[in-house]
Amino acid sequence: MRLVAVVGPTASGKSALSLAIAAAFDGEIISCDSTAVYRGLDIGTDKLDAGQRRGIPHHLIDVVEPTEVYSAARYGQDAAAAVANISTRSRLPIVVGGTGFYLRALVRGIFPGPGRDESLRARLNGVADRRGVESLHRWLTRVDEASGRRIQPRDRKRLVRALEVYLLTGRPLTDHFSNTVSPAGVLETLTIGVNVPRQALLDRVSRRVDEQFERGVVDEVRQLVARGVPLSAHAFSGLVYRQVVDYLNGIRDLAATRELVVRENMRYAKRQVTWFRKEPGVTWLEAPGETPEAQHQALTLVREFLAGPKT
Predict the structure, then answer these.
(1) CATH for 118-178?
(2) Burial letters for 200-234: b for 16+ Cβ neighbours within 10 Å, e otherwise?
């Protein structure tokens, strides 16, 4: 099966580019966003409304309630099913989004790993509390050098999980990853990366954040809480939402919250670019996705990809 993926940092115009590709090549869009899967989280995720989707089917948006926990492993399975369904109807599946781990779960598969061991996690977190998170990174690097290079020294959550897997299975996480396969089977994938210069991206992010607050992202969270969604829900751990939760908890005022959302978006954008730069086979466009330049280049790439022989 053939698949086109449109990736890149937040606010780079991925949605506009994917719509152009879908319109030109009879495609359907599969969202690759770890927060857009939740119903009711619309403004902070910039979900397109029906009119903006231009009649093009969108998949894996609004698939679970915000009280649920949705994982990369589940996304891999759900996205694989969507790819198969779209392909059997002779349409082009187009995955679009910036959640790199979700895309990897689809195209390369992920190691589901052993279940959470709360006792072991408590001990590992205790080590981090006493000796610093960096001590977990040094430990991980000794037993799994590749994971030590991949995981940041202060990324406690991922360090704990990598060490948990090692201690429970006796094998480093890297070994498990090397044996994974895509849940969709063999995929031919064209991956197009959309990049924007930093200052231009900062301007775009700032405008987007202003629009999100003007449209009422704070009231959106209040309404969800009124419906029974706790502020501690996993759905609120995504960008914009966790900062709004802090605001509602009185941690900072509204102006400071807006500024923080912009800064955190830019930090996230940097991590996204770093992630996708390390992924194999990404062809980068150095212009926003809605520009004629980027769309012309992308359509040419897709046309050549689809005209090539199937492997």
Answers:
(1) 1.10.20.140
(2) ebbebbbebbeebbeeebbebbeebbeeebeeebb
